[in-house]
Amino acid sequence: MIDCRSKYSHPRQLLMTNYFFVSSPLHFFIACNLAMQREAQNKLILISKNRSHTDKLAGATKAVPDLYDEVIDLYSDSSVNLKNRLAQIFSITSPLTIFTGNDRRFEFQHAMHIARASNADVKGVYMDDGVISYIGHKSINKIAHRYIDPFLKKLAKGLWWKNSLTTGASDWISEAHLAFPELAHPLLKKKLNKKLKNKSIHQIDSSLFSSETFTKLATSLIMDSTINLASLKPLKLLISLPHEAAYKEKPEYLRRFFASATASFEKNEIAIKGHPRSIDDQLLSDLFPETLVINKHVGFEFLLPLLPEDITIVGDASTTLLSAKWLRPELTTQLLTTDNADEDTLDLFSKLDIHLEQITK
Known about the structure:
Layout: E1 2-3, E2 17-22, H1 25-36, E3 41-46, H2 51-60, E4 70-73, H3 82-90, E5 96-100, H4 106-118, E6 123-127, H5 132-135, H6 143-157, E7 173-178, E8 200-203, H7 212-221, E9 237-240, H8 252-262, E10 270-273, H9 281-287, E11 292-294, H10 300-303, E12 312-315, H11 319-327, E13 332-335, H12 343-351
Parallel strand pairs: 2-3, 2-5, 3-4, 5-6, 6-7, 7-8, 9-10, 9-12, 10-11, 12-13
Antiparallel strand pairs: 1-4
């Protein structure tokens, strides 16, 4: 457990405590955004089992020590039973709100179950999880997903388990904070239990991502990633690649794209970022010679606050481009290819004015 000094100049009775469950770079940035706006006690709960990832996020909070009153690493001690750990944290009667980027995770649902046993007014809040917030879960209409899996989950975990047909749609959630609330999937807006009120949807303030706080967070998060911040300044084009399985057997398209890009940009103005799970790093160097190759393990959201104002970002139809469009709305964002995207995703990107276009200065 890492304690951060209080943001308050003198002790006082706090009326509300906000708990933020975080497992990904996107959720971390959204949690920080929302914590900046709340005059309450804010606590960050890291739920990734990847130790280096968790340590990196926890370390970044030291760059802005006033942001969180406490940072909790839920899996820091493997000898402690998870249910007991959650009971220690959430068996309290004071007012609290629990934020999550995935209400289908056990940690969040069990925390809500424990907290509601002590306090009926505990509120669950969904934080944007990218593309799925707008097009829904890929298995949303399948019988197993709708009926069989929820039944088995209640048997295995308890009657308190609440089904979520898509992320953010469970009845634990009473409100959602999204990048593009007008495009939210319909299930995020209503309760499955008709006796409950429909959920409220709020827009996340993207202007805060350009603040000094986020620059400090982003800088801290990439300090040990071999990225020289000065190397980002001349960039005009950033290419974020899908998993290499999408192009390894037929790289001709990327070669043609690169030839087109170098007709408009110098090679030292182009950066390449491979997919985190890609294996063949040499392939990137062969396809994009003399360009800046950015560490593939660096979270894309960490890079965005540090990129130049006139850079163009090209990528596949995924949360990567959605994050770019949202966190840095002034930047030009374009699709690299539509080969691996379904109709719903392409329709979403079209509504956000992200299209497959030729790259030019």
